[in-house]
C-alpha cells in the first residue's frame, strides 16, 4: 500500500508547504495557484495532523466560496491528491456516522466540508454578519 502521492507544485506553492507559516499572504496574479496548490495541500496536512479540528475558511461572500474557492480546493484534493468525495470527505451534508467527529460538535452542515479524520472545514462569509458565530476560533499550527 502506498501512503504518499507525488504532486508537482511550482516554487511559490512549494515554499508555502515547506515554510508552513501560521499566516501566509500570497500576492500572486489570478490563476497563480493560490487556492489549489497553496490551500489544498495545507488542508490535507491539517486534516492529518489535527484530526477532529474545526477550521474556518473565510471569504467576502458565500458565493465566492462555493463557486470559485471550494471547487478549486476540491479539484486539487481529488485530481492531484487522490481524495474521493463521500469516502475521504463530504461537502455540505452530514458526514457518515462511522467517521471521527469534530471535537466541537456541529448540528448544521450546509456550509461545512467534513473529512473522515473528523476535521470540519467551515465556510464563513464576511458579508453575512454572525456567520462565524459559535465556531471555535483558533490558529492551526501544523
Task: Summarize, please.
With 142 residues, the protein is α+β, with helices and mostly antiparallel strands. The protein is built from 3 helices and 4 strands.
Global structural class: alpha+beta
- Tell me the strand order in the biggest sheet: 1-4-3-2
The ordered H/E elements are HHEHEEE
Largest sheet: 4 strands, mixed
Identify the overall geometry: globular
> Span from first to last CA?
25 Å
- Amount of beta strand: 5-15%
How many β-strand runs?
A: 4
Low-pLDDT regions: 138-142
Mean pLDDT: 86
Q: How much helix, percentage-wise, in residues?
A: 25-40%
CA-atom Rg in angstroms:
15 Å
Number of helices: 3
Helices and strands in order:
Blueprint: H1 11-19, H2 34-49, E1 54-59, H3 62-80, E2 89-91, E3 112-115, E4 120-125
Parallel strand pairs: 1-4
Antiparallel strand pairs: 2-3, 3-4
Helix pairs in contact: 1-2, 2-3
Amino acid at each position: 500500500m502506498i501512503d504518499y502521492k507525488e504532486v508537482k507544485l511550482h516554487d511559490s506553492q512549494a515554499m508555502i508547504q515547506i515554510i508552513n507559516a501560521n499566516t501566509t499572504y500570497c500576492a500572486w496574479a489570478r490563476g497563480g495557484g493560490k487556492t489549489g496548490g497553496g490551500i489544498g495541500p495545507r488542508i490535507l496536512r491539517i486534516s492529518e495532523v489535527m484530526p477532529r479540528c474545526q477550521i474556518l475558511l473565510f471569504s467576502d461572500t458565500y458565493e465566492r466560496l462555493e463557486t470559485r474557492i471550494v471547487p478549486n480546493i476540491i479539484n486539487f484534493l481529488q485530481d492531484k491528491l487522490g481524495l474521493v468525495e463521500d469516502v475521504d470527505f463530504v461537502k455540505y451534508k452530514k458526514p457518515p456516522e462511522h467517521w471521527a467527529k469534530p471535537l466541537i460538535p456541529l448540528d448544521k452542515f450546509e456550509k461545512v466540508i467534513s473529512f473522515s479524520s473528523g476535521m470540519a472545514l467551515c465556510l464563513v462569509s464576511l458579508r453575512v454578519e454572525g456567520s462565524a458565530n459559535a465556531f471555535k476560533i483558533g490558529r492551526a499550527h501544523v
